[in-house]
Design brief:
Blueprint (H helix, E strand, L loop, with lengths): L5 H5 L8 E13 L3 E7 L7 E6 L5 H5 L6 E10 L7 E12 L16 H5 L9 H23 L3 E2 L5 E2 L11 E2 L26 E3 L4 H11 L1 E9 L12 E10 L3 H22 L1 H10 L4 H10 L3 E4 H10 L16 H12 L3 E7 L15 E9 L3 E8 L4 H10 L8 H8 L5 E7 H9 L20
Parallel strand pairs: 3-5, 6-10, 12-13
Antiparallel strand pairs: 1-2, 1-4, 2-3, 4-5, 7-9, 8-9, 10-11, 11-16, 13-14, 14-15, 15-16
Helix pairs in contact: 4-6, 4-7, 6-8
The structure holds 4-amino-1,4-dioxobutan-2-aminium adenosine-5'-monophosphate.
């Protein structure tokens, strides 16, 4: 028995006329009194394979009772298919029913388009649909390409911690980790919670970013990156925010902001090329059913050089645009999504890197520019999504870093180790963070980030 994946069988990886076995779940069953056509998917590629079952089979009656979702093992001869759009099919010599669907009428995954809202309620079963199968394979392809990109360029992958004491972004959006009895919290003389009696002996949180930890490794191994889950307790009920999302964060010693932007552009283009090359079947489905220009816009993205605009110039352009925005446009205020979209979609019509933002609303670790008013920060904005990457050159001068931490009211006691990099062989360095689900949203043309991750975590939502 040669067990093969459906994708390989359809790709002609096995000799025509040979015997193969596929294992998977039934998508659809059609047929007549004498023949049954059973479409079987094992998720290895977009298309299911058709098994043609004749009534001579000893359990033909059983096969006719199959419904979507049943699990089966099909053995038979691989033959060229006469059917439209199918390369090969299996003339079945045996169909073993491994698991029945208990109640086909209440099985949530039906062979018809279902709304993403409904499917979010059955997140544990949605990978069986065409859409979530495609999104999952595309996400996997992007993850593999992330590692390949960095590996090919001598970056070292660092696994940074999830439990931490420091607020990497200084924005106070951290989830607390504690083993203390909430109903009976130990308190010190001043009435503050006594975290010395907690598991780690101090107050700990889920990380908002691996950046501070990965900087340490950049200042020893030169080119590094972290790729893992990050957590933000921001109460954002938007289609662009998750409480738990994955971030790719490269960090490079001896790099400035211009080099940072160059790598960000090269990296994104590499990822899009990988997905177009490796997931053509899933992208064709996305283009047909989700986003008409899904393929062409990635192709355009790959070809277009990113525009670079300084924040100060971006403000002037927005003010001169004559466009009515909901949020004010003024030097010193952050850009809102509507501003970002105007810049990238209407003004330049391709991705834009906005640089050198006012220092007061950007993170404490970003390098202060000579004007004393701006920091060497960048946001990469993409048509159709807005901000997808945020990065900066880091402040490598200890005195300025200390002043910035004081300005942001951060307790230096929590950042002693981070200050050490500036005390021992400090060098200019830079990095960025790519929100991985925002990337998946963009590639798959999704309208909600909750569909870009297997089990979305958002305010009021932590099922499964
Ligand atoms: O701009 P952010 O906050 O930057 C950092 O965390 C830096 N430490 C990165 C670095 O320089 N190493 O976040 C980076 C990216 C954003 O551009 C966005 O794509 C994504 O992370 N992001 C979110 N994605 C989903 N849900 C959220 N709540 C997100 N917050 C940020």
């Amino acid at each position: 028995m040669t067990v093969v994946s459906v994708a390989q069988a359809l790709a002609g990886k096995f000799p025509e006329g040979g015997e193969v076995t596929v294992r998977g779940w039934v998508r659809t069953v059609r047929g007549s009194a004498a023949l049954a056509f059973v479409n079987v998917s094992d998720g290895s590629g977009f298309a299911p394979i058709q098994a043609v079952v004749a009534d001579g089979l000893s359990n033909f009656d059983e096969v006719k009772r199959l419904t979507p979702g049943c699990s089966v093992i099909v053995t038979g001869t691989l033959v060229k298919s006469q059917g439209k759009g199918q390369s090969f099919e299996i003339q079945a010599s045996a169909v073993e029913v491994v698991g029945w669907v208990e109640d086909p009428l209440t099985y949530p995954i039906q062979p018809k388009p279902m709304s993403p809202e409904f499917l979010r309620e059955v997140a544990h079963l949605r990978p069986r649909t065409n859409l979530f199968g495609a999104v999952t394979r595309i996400r996997n392809c992007l993850s593999q390409a992330v590692h390949r990109y960095f590996h090919e360029r001598e970056f070292c992958w660092i696994s940074t911690p999830i439990i931490t004491t420091s607020d990497a972004e200084g924005a106070g959006q951290m989830f607390r980790v504690s083993t203390l009895d909430m109903a009976n919290l130990p308190r010190d003389g001043a009435g503050n919670v006594d975290f010395s009696r907690d598991f780690f002996g101090k107050e700990t949180f889920l990380t908002v970013s691996g950046q501070l930890n990965v900087e340490a490794y950049a200042l020893a191994l030169s080119k590094v990156y972290t790729f893992g889950p990050t957590f933000r307790a921001e109460n954002s009920h938007t289609t662009r925010h998750l409480a738990e999302f994955w971030m790719v964060e490269p960090e490079m010693a001896f790099a400035d902001l211009a080099e940072d932007a160059r790598v960000a552009e090269d990296f994104l283009k590499y990822l899009f090329k990988a997905v177009l090359n490796e997931r053509a079947d899933d992208m064709a489905f996305i283009a047909e059913r989700v986003q008409k220009d899904a393929i062409t816009r990635l192709e355009k993205f790959i070809e277009a050089p990113f525009e670079r605009i300084e924040y100060t110039d971006a403000i002037a352009l927005l003010q001169k645009s004559g466009k009515k925005f909901d949020y004010p446009v003024e030097w010193g205020l952050d850009l809102q999504t509507e501003h970002e979209r105007w810049l990238t979609e209407e003004h330049v019509g391709r991705p834009v890197v906005v640089t050198n933002y006012p220092e007061h609303f950007k993170a404490f670790y970003m390098r202060l520019n000579d004007d004393g008013k701006t920091v060497a920060a960048m946001d990469v904005l993409a048509p159709g999504i807005g901000e997808i990457i945020g990065g900066s050159q880091r402040e490598e001068r200890l005195d300025i870093l200390d002043a910035r931490m004081a300005q942001f009211g951060l307790d230096p006691a929590h950042y002693q180790w981070y200050r050490d990099f500036r005390r021992y062989g400090s060098v200019p360095h830079a990095g960025f963070g790519l929100g991985f689900e925002r990337l998946v949203v963009y590639v798959c043309g999704l309208s909600n980030i909750r569909d870009a991750i297997a089990y979305p975590r958002a305010p009021g939502s932590a099922e499964f």
